[in-house]
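=== Structure Prediction Worksheet ===
Name of assembly: unnamed complex
Input type: mixed (protein and possibly other molecules)
Chain count: two
Listed entries:
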Amino acid sequence: MIAVLALLAGVVLGVWLDPSVPAALQPYLPIAVVAALDAVFGGVRAKLDRIFDDKQFVVSFISNVLVAALIVYLGDQLGVGGQLSTGVVVVLGVRIFGNVAAIRRHLFRA
Amino acid sequence: MSTDPAGRERPTRTYAPDFLTELFRNPLEPGYAAAAQRRRVDPPSRVRARSAQTVTVVVLVVLGFLLAVAYRQTMEDEPGRSQARSGLVTQIKERERETDELSARADRLREEVGRQRDAALSGSAAARLRDLEAGTGMGRVRGDGVVVRLADASGDADAVTGAGAGPPRVLYSDLQGVANALWSAGAEAISINGQRLTATSTIRSAGEAILVDFRPVTGPYEVSAIGPGSMKRRFEKSRNADLMREVAEKTGLSFGVREADDLTLPAAPEPQLRYAEPPGSPSASPSGDRSASPGSTGSGTSPSPSGGGR
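=== Predicted Assembly ===
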Protein backbone atom coordinates (compact mmCIF):
# COMPACT_ATOMS: atom_id res chain seq x y z
CA MET A 1 0.00 0.00 0.00
CA ILE A 2 2.72 2.39 1.04
CA ALA A 3 4.68 1.27 -2.00
CA VAL A 4 1.86 2.14 -4.39
CA LEU A 5 1.38 5.51 -2.71
CA ALA A 6 5.09 6.22 -2.98
CA LEU A 7 5.02 5.31 -6.66
CA LEU A 8 2.08 7.62 -7.26
CA ALA A 9 3.81 10.38 -5.32
CA GLY A 10 6.83 9.98 -7.57
CA VAL A 11 4.69 10.20 -10.69
CA VAL A 12 2.92 13.30 -9.39
CA LEU A 13 6.27 14.82 -8.50
CA GLY A 14 7.63 14.12 -11.96
CA VAL A 15 4.61 15.63 -13.66
CA TRP A 16 4.56 18.61 -11.33
CA LEU A 17 8.24 19.46 -11.45
CA ASP A 18 8.51 18.64 -15.14
CA PRO A 19 12.30 18.49 -15.13
CA SER A 20 14.16 18.73 -18.39
CA VAL A 21 16.50 15.83 -19.00
CA PRO A 22 19.99 16.90 -20.06
CA ALA A 23 20.70 15.91 -23.63
CA ALA A 24 23.66 13.78 -22.55
CA LEU A 25 21.44 11.60 -20.37
CA GLN A 26 18.58 11.19 -22.81
CA PRO A 27 19.73 7.94 -24.45
CA TYR A 28 19.97 6.28 -21.04
CA LEU A 29 16.48 7.17 -19.88
CA PRO A 30 14.52 4.43 -21.66
CA ILE A 31 17.05 1.77 -20.69
CA ALA A 32 17.03 3.00 -17.10
CA VAL A 33 13.25 2.74 -17.06
CA VAL A 34 13.33 -0.83 -18.34
CA ALA A 35 15.99 -1.77 -15.79
CA ALA A 36 13.94 -0.19 -13.03
CA LEU A 37 10.86 -2.08 -14.15
CA ASP A 38 12.86 -5.30 -13.92
CA ALA A 39 13.80 -4.50 -10.32
CA VAL A 40 10.20 -3.64 -9.51
CA PHE A 41 8.76 -6.83 -10.93
CA GLY A 42 11.43 -8.79 -9.10
CA GLY A 43 10.37 -7.01 -5.90
CA VAL A 44 6.68 -7.65 -6.46
CA ARG A 45 7.36 -11.27 -7.08
CA ALA A 46 9.47 -11.53 -3.94
CA LYS A 47 6.67 -9.84 -2.02
CA LEU A 48 4.22 -12.44 -3.23
CA ASP A 49 6.75 -15.17 -2.43
CA ARG A 50 6.89 -13.56 1.04
CA ILE A 51 10.62 -13.19 0.85
CA PHE A 52 10.69 -9.48 0.05
CA ASP A 53 13.71 -7.73 1.44
CA ASP A 54 14.10 -3.95 1.45
CA LYS A 55 17.86 -3.93 1.14
CA GLN A 56 17.82 -6.45 -1.68
CA PHE A 57 15.22 -4.40 -3.53
CA VAL A 58 17.07 -1.10 -3.18
CA VAL A 59 20.39 -2.60 -4.18
CA SER A 60 18.94 -4.42 -7.19
CA PHE A 61 17.12 -1.28 -8.33
CA ILE A 62 20.19 0.92 -8.16
CA SER A 63 22.56 -1.62 -9.62
CA ASN A 64 20.16 -2.51 -12.43
CA VAL A 65 19.81 1.11 -13.48
CA LEU A 66 23.51 1.80 -13.20
CA VAL A 67 24.62 -1.34 -15.01
CA ALA A 68 22.12 -0.81 -17.80
CA ALA A 69 23.29 2.77 -18.23
CA LEU A 70 26.92 1.66 -18.11
CA ILE A 71 26.38 -0.96 -20.80
CA VAL A 72 24.68 1.54 -23.06
CA TYR A 73 27.46 4.03 -22.41
CA LEU A 74 30.11 1.44 -23.22
CA GLY A 75 28.21 0.49 -26.35
CA ASP A 76 28.11 4.12 -27.42
CA GLN A 77 31.84 4.42 -26.93
CA LEU A 78 32.45 1.24 -28.91
CA GLY A 79 30.07 2.21 -31.67
CA VAL A 80 27.59 -0.57 -30.99
CA GLY A 81 25.24 1.46 -28.80
CA GLY A 82 22.09 0.49 -30.66
CA GLN A 83 22.78 -3.23 -30.67
CA LEU A 84 23.87 -3.29 -27.05
CA SER A 85 20.74 -1.37 -26.03
CA THR A 86 18.71 -3.99 -27.86
CA GLY A 87 20.59 -6.71 -26.01
CA VAL A 88 19.94 -5.09 -22.65
CA VAL A 89 16.27 -4.66 -23.46
CA VAL A 90 15.97 -8.28 -24.55
CA VAL A 91 17.61 -9.64 -21.40
CA LEU A 92 15.61 -7.40 -19.10
CA GLY A 93 12.48 -8.15 -21.07
CA VAL A 94 12.95 -11.88 -20.62
CA ARG A 95 13.53 -11.37 -16.90
CA ILE A 96 10.43 -9.24 -16.61
CA PHE A 97 8.48 -11.93 -18.43
CA GLY A 98 9.76 -14.55 -16.03
CA ASN A 99 8.84 -12.49 -13.00
CA VAL A 100 5.44 -11.57 -14.37
CA ALA A 101 4.79 -15.24 -15.06
CA ALA A 102 5.55 -16.00 -11.40
CA ILE A 103 3.37 -13.13 -10.23
CA ARG A 104 0.59 -14.30 -12.49
CA ARG A 105 0.79 -17.75 -10.97
CA HIS A 106 0.52 -16.25 -7.52
CA LEU A 107 -2.44 -14.10 -8.36
CA PHE A 108 -4.47 -16.32 -10.65
CA ARG A 109 -3.14 -19.73 -9.82
CA ALA A 110 -2.67 -20.30 -13.50
CA MET B 1 8.51 -21.37 -6.68
CA SER B 2 6.27 -24.37 -6.92
CA THR B 3 6.91 -25.20 -3.31
CA ASP B 4 4.29 -24.09 -0.89
CA PRO B 5 5.81 -21.38 1.30
CA ALA B 6 4.11 -22.82 4.35
CA GLY B 7 5.60 -26.20 3.54
CA ARG B 8 2.40 -28.09 4.09
CA GLU B 9 2.02 -31.64 2.91
CA ARG B 10 0.15 -30.88 -0.24
CA PRO B 11 0.90 -32.38 -3.63
CA THR B 12 2.80 -29.60 -5.35
CA ARG B 13 0.82 -28.12 -8.17
CA THR B 14 2.41 -28.55 -11.53
CA TYR B 15 1.99 -25.82 -14.07
CA ALA B 16 2.46 -26.35 -17.71
CA PRO B 17 5.75 -24.51 -18.20
CA ASP B 18 5.78 -22.06 -21.04
CA PHE B 19 8.92 -21.35 -22.95
CA LEU B 20 10.08 -18.38 -20.93
CA THR B 21 9.43 -20.10 -17.64
CA GLU B 22 11.37 -23.05 -18.85
CA LEU B 23 14.16 -20.70 -19.82
CA PHE B 24 14.33 -19.16 -16.39
CA ARG B 25 13.10 -21.87 -14.14
CA ASN B 26 15.69 -21.02 -11.57
CA PRO B 27 14.92 -18.06 -9.29
CA LEU B 28 15.75 -14.79 -10.96
CA GLU B 29 16.93 -13.00 -7.88
CA PRO B 30 18.58 -15.51 -5.62
CA GLY B 31 19.35 -12.55 -3.37
CA TYR B 32 15.80 -12.46 -2.06
CA ALA B 33 15.89 -16.08 -1.04
CA ALA B 34 19.28 -15.61 0.57
CA ALA B 35 18.06 -12.55 2.47
CA ALA B 36 15.00 -14.42 3.68
CA GLN B 37 17.25 -17.22 4.84
CA ARG B 38 19.44 -14.74 6.71
CA ARG B 39 16.46 -13.12 8.34
CA ARG B 40 15.14 -16.41 9.56
CA VAL B 41 18.45 -17.13 11.20
CA ASP B 42 19.06 -13.66 12.53
CA PRO B 43 16.02 -11.31 12.59
CA PRO B 44 17.07 -7.66 12.13
CA SER B 45 16.39 -5.02 14.71
CA ARG B 46 13.25 -2.88 14.46
CA VAL B 47 15.20 0.28 13.76
CA ARG B 48 17.04 -1.32 10.91
CA ALA B 49 13.88 -2.69 9.37
CA ARG B 50 12.26 0.75 9.62
CA SER B 51 15.14 2.53 7.94
CA ALA B 52 15.32 -0.10 5.20
CA GLN B 53 11.64 0.39 4.56
CA THR B 54 12.12 4.13 4.32
CA VAL B 55 14.82 3.67 1.74
CA THR B 56 12.50 1.41 -0.24
CA VAL B 57 9.82 4.08 -0.20
CA VAL B 58 12.34 6.66 -1.39
CA VAL B 59 13.43 4.35 -4.19
CA LEU B 60 9.82 3.86 -5.23
CA VAL B 61 9.30 7.62 -5.31
CA VAL B 62 12.38 7.90 -7.48
CA LEU B 63 11.01 5.15 -9.72
CA GLY B 64 7.68 6.93 -10.16
CA PHE B 65 9.58 10.10 -10.92
CA LEU B 66 11.66 8.26 -13.49
CA LEU B 67 8.58 6.81 -15.17
CA ALA B 68 6.88 10.19 -15.35
CA VAL B 69 9.98 11.88 -16.73
CA ALA B 70 10.56 9.19 -19.31
CA TYR B 71 6.95 9.33 -20.40
CA ARG B 72 7.02 13.08 -20.76
CA GLN B 73 10.28 12.91 -22.62
CA THR B 74 8.90 10.45 -25.13
CA MET B 75 5.78 12.51 -25.57
CA GLU B 76 7.83 15.64 -26.12
CA ASP B 77 9.95 13.98 -28.77
CA GLU B 78 6.92 12.98 -30.78
CA PRO B 79 5.56 16.43 -31.64
CA GLY B 80 9.13 17.39 -32.51
CA ARG B 81 9.14 14.83 -35.26
CA SER B 82 5.75 15.72 -36.65
CA GLN B 83 6.61 19.38 -36.34
CA ALA B 84 9.67 18.90 -38.48
CA ARG B 85 7.54 17.14 -41.05
CA SER B 86 4.83 19.76 -41.16
CA GLY B 87 7.52 22.42 -41.25
CA LEU B 88 8.95 20.85 -44.37
CA VAL B 89 5.50 20.63 -45.92
CA THR B 90 4.94 24.32 -45.20
CA GLN B 91 8.28 25.17 -46.76
CA ILE B 92 7.43 23.20 -49.88
CA LYS B 93 4.07 24.94 -50.16
CA GLU B 94 5.73 28.30 -49.68
CA ARG B 95 8.34 27.64 -52.33
CA GLU B 96 5.65 26.47 -54.73
CA ARG B 97 3.74 29.67 -54.16
CA GLU B 98 6.89 31.69 -54.71
CA THR B 99 7.55 29.82 -57.93
CA ASP B 100 4.01 30.51 -59.08
CA GLU B 101 4.37 34.19 -58.28
CA LEU B 102 7.68 34.45 -60.04
CA SER B 103 6.47 32.65 -63.13
CA ALA B 104 3.39 34.88 -63.21
CA ARG B 105 5.73 37.86 -63.03
CA ALA B 106 7.86 36.38 -65.78
CA ASP B 107 4.76 35.99 -67.92
CA ARG B 108 3.78 39.60 -67.31
CA LEU B 109 7.24 40.79 -68.17
CA ARG B 110 7.32 38.70 -71.28
CA GLU B 111 4.03 40.17 -72.42
CA GLU B 112 5.43 43.59 -71.75
CA VAL B 113 8.48 42.76 -73.84
CA GLY B 114 6.21 41.50 -76.60
CA ARG B 115 4.24 44.74 -76.59
CA GLN B 116 7.37 46.85 -76.68
CA ARG B 117 8.71 44.75 -79.51
CA ASP B 118 5.49 45.03 -81.49
CA ALA B 119 5.67 48.77 -81.08
CA ALA B 120 9.24 48.83 -82.27
CA LEU B 121 8.86 46.47 -85.19
CA SER B 122 7.09 47.11 -88.44
CA GLY B 123 3.62 45.61 -88.82
CA SER B 124 4.40 42.60 -90.99
CA ALA B 125 7.44 41.49 -89.02
CA ALA B 126 5.50 41.77 -85.77
CA ALA B 127 2.63 39.75 -87.19
CA ARG B 128 5.02 37.08 -88.35
CA LEU B 129 6.61 36.93 -84.91
CA ARG B 130 3.21 36.63 -83.25
CA ASP B 131 2.27 33.76 -85.52
CA LEU B 132 5.53 32.02 -84.72
CA GLU B 133 4.97 32.54 -81.02
CA ALA B 134 1.46 31.15 -81.21
CA GLY B 135 2.72 28.13 -83.08
CA THR B 136 5.61 27.41 -80.76
CA GLY B 137 3.63 27.93 -77.56
CA MET B 138 5.50 31.05 -76.51
CA GLY B 139 2.46 33.27 -76.76
CA ARG B 140 -1.03 33.18 -75.33
CA VAL B 141 -3.63 32.04 -77.84
CA ARG B 142 -7.40 32.14 -78.02
CA GLY B 143 -9.73 30.16 -80.14
CA ASP B 144 -12.26 27.34 -80.41
CA GLY B 145 -11.32 23.76 -79.88
CA VAL B 146 -11.94 20.72 -77.74
CA VAL B 147 -11.40 19.84 -74.10
CA VAL B 148 -10.53 16.26 -73.21
CA ARG B 149 -11.21 15.46 -69.60
CA LEU B 150 -9.52 12.55 -67.80
CA ALA B 151 -10.05 11.69 -64.16
CA ASP B 152 -8.96 8.96 -61.79
CA ALA B 153 -11.54 6.35 -60.94
CA SER B 154 -13.37 7.11 -57.73
CA GLY B 155 -11.66 5.26 -54.91
CA ASP B 156 -13.42 2.21 -53.61
CA ALA B 157 -10.26 0.77 -52.12
CA ASP B 158 -9.46 1.49 -48.52
CA ALA B 159 -7.33 4.59 -48.44
CA VAL B 160 -5.86 3.74 -45.04
CA THR B 161 -4.73 0.17 -45.56
CA GLY B 162 -4.17 0.72 -49.27
CA ALA B 163 -5.83 -2.55 -50.08
CA GLY B 164 -4.93 -3.50 -53.59
CA ALA B 165 -3.15 -0.88 -55.61
CA GLY B 166 -5.73 1.80 -54.96
CA PRO B 167 -8.25 2.99 -57.52
CA PRO B 168 -7.19 3.00 -61.15
CA ARG B 169 -5.36 6.19 -61.97
CA VAL B 170 -4.71 8.19 -65.07
CA LEU B 171 -1.18 7.43 -66.20
CA TYR B 172 1.25 9.84 -67.73
CA SER B 173 1.18 7.73 -70.86
CA ASP B 174 -2.56 8.35 -71.15
CA LEU B 175 -1.92 12.08 -71.16
CA GLN B 176 0.89 11.60 -73.66
CA GLY B 177 -1.37 9.58 -75.92
CA VAL B 178 -4.17 12.12 -75.75
CA ALA B 179 -1.79 15.01 -76.45
CA ASN B 180 -0.23 13.20 -79.40
CA ALA B 181 -3.61 12.24 -80.80
CA LEU B 182 -4.71 15.86 -80.52
CA TRP B 183 -1.61 17.05 -82.31
CA SER B 184 -2.19 14.60 -85.10
CA ALA B 185 -5.85 15.58 -85.25
CA GLY B 186 -4.70 19.05 -86.20
CA ALA B 187 -4.41 20.88 -82.90
CA GLU B 188 -2.51 24.12 -83.10
CA ALA B 189 -2.03 24.63 -79.38
CA ILE B 190 -2.50 22.30 -76.42
CA SER B 191 -2.38 22.82 -72.70
CA ILE B 192 -2.78 20.35 -69.85
CA ASN B 193 -4.34 21.84 -66.75
CA GLY B 194 -3.12 25.23 -67.85
CA GLN B 195 0.39 24.06 -68.75
CA ARG B 196 0.98 24.91 -72.37
CA LEU B 197 2.79 22.29 -74.37
CA THR B 198 5.62 23.25 -76.66
CA ALA B 199 7.83 21.29 -78.98
CA THR B 200 10.14 20.45 -76.09
CA SER B 201 7.52 19.72 -73.42
CA THR B 202 7.70 16.56 -71.39
CA ILE B 203 4.94 14.56 -69.77
CA ARG B 204 6.44 12.24 -67.23
CA SER B 205 5.63 10.47 -64.03
CA ALA B 206 7.54 10.84 -60.81
CA GLY B 207 6.28 8.38 -58.27
CA GLU B 208 2.54 8.92 -58.18
CA ALA B 209 2.64 12.42 -59.59
CA ILE B 210 2.49 13.42 -63.22
CA LEU B 211 4.85 16.17 -64.26
CA VAL B 212 4.22 18.35 -67.27
CA ASP B 213 7.37 20.29 -68.01
CA PHE B 214 8.55 19.42 -64.49
CA ARG B 215 5.53 21.05 -62.90
CA PRO B 216 3.20 18.67 -61.12
CA VAL B 217 -0.35 18.44 -62.35
CA THR B 218 -3.13 16.70 -60.45
CA GLY B 219 -6.38 15.13 -61.54
CA PRO B 220 -8.86 15.70 -62.97
CA TYR B 221 -6.79 16.44 -66.02
CA GLU B 222 -8.14 18.75 -68.70
CA VAL B 223 -6.33 18.69 -71.98
CA SER B 224 -7.45 21.74 -73.94
CA ALA B 225 -6.62 22.06 -77.58
CA ILE B 226 -7.28 24.79 -80.08
CA GLY B 227 -7.62 23.74 -83.66
CA PRO B 228 -9.87 23.42 -86.67
CA GLY B 229 -13.50 22.37 -86.38
CA SER B 230 -12.78 18.89 -87.68
CA MET B 231 -10.40 18.21 -84.79
CA LYS B 232 -12.95 16.66 -82.45
CA ARG B 233 -14.14 14.21 -85.07
CA ARG B 234 -10.63 13.27 -86.07
CA PHE B 235 -9.52 12.90 -82.48
CA GLU B 236 -12.42 10.64 -81.63
CA LYS B 237 -11.60 8.43 -84.56
CA SER B 238 -7.97 8.12 -83.47
CA ARG B 239 -6.56 4.95 -82.00
CA ASN B 240 -5.67 6.69 -78.76
CA ALA B 241 -9.22 7.85 -78.21
CA ASP B 242 -10.43 4.31 -78.83
CA LEU B 243 -7.90 2.99 -76.38
CA MET B 244 -8.87 5.52 -73.72
CA ARG B 245 -12.56 4.78 -74.17
CA GLU B 246 -11.85 1.12 -73.67
CA VAL B 247 -9.65 1.77 -70.65
CA ALA B 248 -12.33 4.02 -69.19
CA GLU B 249 -14.94 1.34 -69.68
CA LYS B 250 -12.84 -1.34 -68.06
CA THR B 251 -11.31 0.52 -65.13
CA GLY B 252 -13.79 3.24 -64.30
CA LEU B 253 -11.59 6.16 -65.27
CA SER B 254 -13.59 8.99 -66.65
CA PHE B 255 -12.82 10.13 -70.17
CA GLY B 256 -14.77 12.76 -71.99
CA VAL B 257 -14.36 14.91 -75.07
CA ARG B 258 -16.33 18.08 -75.60
CA GLU B 259 -16.13 21.00 -77.91
CA ALA B 260 -15.38 24.32 -76.32
CA ASP B 261 -15.61 27.80 -77.73
CA ASP B 262 -13.27 30.63 -77.02
CA LEU B 263 -10.59 28.75 -75.12
CA THR B 264 -7.64 30.72 -73.88
CA LEU B 265 -4.39 28.85 -73.58
CA PRO B 266 -1.61 30.52 -71.61
CA ALA B 267 1.90 30.90 -72.88
CA ALA B 268 4.37 28.21 -71.96
CA PRO B 269 6.67 29.05 -69.09
CA GLU B 270 10.27 30.14 -69.51
CA PRO B 271 11.50 28.84 -72.81
CA GLN B 272 14.67 26.82 -72.59
CA LEU B 273 16.92 28.47 -75.07
CA ARG B 274 19.70 26.56 -76.70
CA TYR B 275 22.23 28.18 -78.91
CA ALA B 276 24.05 26.83 -81.83
CA GLU B 277 27.35 28.52 -82.40
CA PRO B 278 29.14 28.71 -85.69
CA PRO B 279 32.08 26.36 -85.71
CA GLY B 280 35.59 27.56 -86.26
CA SER B 281 35.34 30.94 -84.61
CA PRO B 282 38.82 31.62 -83.24
CA SER B 283 38.22 31.80 -79.51
CA ALA B 284 35.12 29.65 -79.30
CA SER B 285 35.25 27.05 -76.61
CA PRO B 286 35.12 23.54 -78.06
CA SER B 287 31.43 22.80 -77.58
CA GLY B 288 30.16 22.08 -74.15
CA ASP B 289 28.27 25.22 -73.21
CA ARG B 290 25.85 25.01 -76.03
CA SER B 291 22.97 25.40 -73.69
CA ALA B 292 24.01 28.57 -71.96
CA SER B 293 20.97 30.52 -70.98
CA PRO B 294 20.69 34.22 -71.69
CA GLY B 295 21.83 36.46 -68.91
CA SER B 296 24.02 33.81 -67.36
CA THR B 297 26.93 34.20 -69.69
CA GLY B 298 29.30 32.43 -67.41
CA SER B 299 32.34 33.02 -69.58
CA GLY B 300 32.79 36.60 -70.56
CA THR B 301 34.66 35.46 -73.64
CA SER B 302 31.54 34.30 -75.42
CA PRO B 303 32.24 35.14 -79.03
CA SER B 304 28.83 36.46 -79.92
CA PRO B 305 26.78 38.19 -77.26
CA SER B 306 23.43 36.46 -77.43
CA GLY B 307 21.67 39.42 -78.93
CA GLY B 308 18.55 40.19 -77.00
CA GLY B 309 18.18 36.65 -75.75
CA ARG B 310 15.72 35.53 -78.34
